[in-house]
From TrEMBL:
Coiled coil: none
Protein known as: Metallo-beta-lactamase family protein
Bilayer-crossing regions: none
Every Metallo-beta-lactamase domain range: 76-243
InterPro entries documented for this protein: Metallo-B-lactamas, NDM-1-like, RibonucZ/Hydroxyglut_hydro
Domain of life of the organism encoding this protein: Bacteria
Pfam family name, one: Lactamase_B
Xref: Gene3D superfamilies: Ribonuclease Z/Hydroxyacylglutathione hydrolase-like
Organism listed in the record: Plesiocystis pacifica SIR-1
Length: 336
């Protein structure tokens, strides 16, 4: 048996210090962020959640939804267009798709783009409206109002605005636009193609994934929940949500069920730790925000754990964004 001599102990000590220093560096520097970015520490994404295979050469993925309606997806955003007997009607113009969107349309048809519908005012969905300079722009009046304030030359003012509902018939294709409240933000509309049974509502339901941060930064959380009743009342087979995959009715139902689960879990967590009790503790601390935040984080964690357990193998990104949804709903629960 070899005995450890003092010389050996020195080496062990140096190795231990080196290991500790490395770990400190990993924890304290951007290397830690880089490691997290690999996703190696996250749970795997369900196979059916994998996003559409964007062609790296063209920068888009194209899928026909039926009778001239097409789903087009880039790396992060998606949209749709419908080819009618006369022309093309496009929904949105995401900058992340950019000119690839025009290429995708040209892969299918040479017809001119006659109409551009704005789903809502956000630049990540309509910031390249200038790619369709000849098109008549249709949007909700609140979207027009928001754009008026932005003064972005790439998102020109709509030519046609409406408040409740608006219908278009272009080259024999019916397109029904409806405002069901500020689910994601003021003026975001549902776009429905009844012949093709295609429904679109951007930034509300993310087929086969959870919404991104805080229910996709929903401005009015009650309106976010309320819009699902309207969406599920449509007769549709395909759903275009602006991100992730093209979905169907079940995907919209799953998203609602997930959101309801978060809400119930947040209410339970908030009920277990009444704000009044947190208030009593705050009185004893020099920086009450630290204690308050600790309390909110405890409630958030209590909301998050069971939801992640129930949904992790059903939707993508449950492990990433359930925390933010729970935190938002905890605040909602203690104020509603
Ligand atoms: Zn948006």
């Amino acid at each position: 048996m070899t005995m450890m001599t003092p010389k050996h102990w020195n080496r062990v000590l140096i190795a231990a210090i080196a290991l500790l220093t490395t770990w400190l560096l990993v924890l304290l520097t951007p290397v830690h962020d880089l490691l997290r970015l690999t996703g190696l520490f996250n749970s795997s994404v369900p196979a059916e959640s994998i996003n559409p295979p964007v062609d790296p050469d063209t920068g888009y993925y194209l899928e026909e939804l039926g009778e001239g309606a097409w789903f087009v997806s880039g790396w992060s955003h998606n949209a749709m267009f419908v080819v009618t007997d006369e022309s093309v009607v496009v929904l949105d113009a995401p900058p992340s798709l950019g000119e690839a969107y025009v290429d995708a349309i040209r892969e299918v048809t040479d017809k001119p783009v006659s109409h551009l519908i704005y789903s809502h005012a956000h630049t990540d969905h309509i910031g390249r409206a200038d790619l369709f300079p000849e098109a008549t722009v249709v949007a909700h009046a609140l979207t027009a109002e928001a754009l008026e304030a932005r003064k972005d030359p790439r998102r020109r003012a709509p030519d046609i605005t409406f408040e409740g509902r608006h219908s278009l018939t272009v080259g024999g294709v019916s397109i029904e636009l409806a405002y069901h409240g500020p689910a994601h933000g003021p003026g975001n509309i549902a776009v429905y193609l009844p012949q093709q049974k295609v429904l679109s509502m951007i930034d509300v339901a993310f087929p086969k994934w959870v919404p991104v941060h805080e229910f996709a930064i929903a401005e009015d959380i009650d309106a976010y929940f309320a819009v699902y009743d309207h969406l599920l009342a449509y007769d549709f087979d395909h759903f275009v949500g602006g991100h992730a995959n093209v979905g169907d009715r079940q995907d919209v139902q799953d998203q609602l069920d997930y959101a309801l689960d978060v809400r119930e879990s947040a209410r339970a967590a908030a009920g277990n730790a009444p704000v009044q009790d947190i208030g009593k503790i705050l009185a004893w601390t020099p920086n009450p925000y630290v204690t308050a935040n600790f309390g909110f984080e405890r409630m958030t964690a209590e909301c998050e754990a069971p939801v992640v357990d129930r949904w992790d193998d059903r939707l993508g990104g449950v492990d990433v964004f359930t925390h933010s949804h729970c935190r938002r709903m905890v605040f909602q629960a203690i104020t509603e």
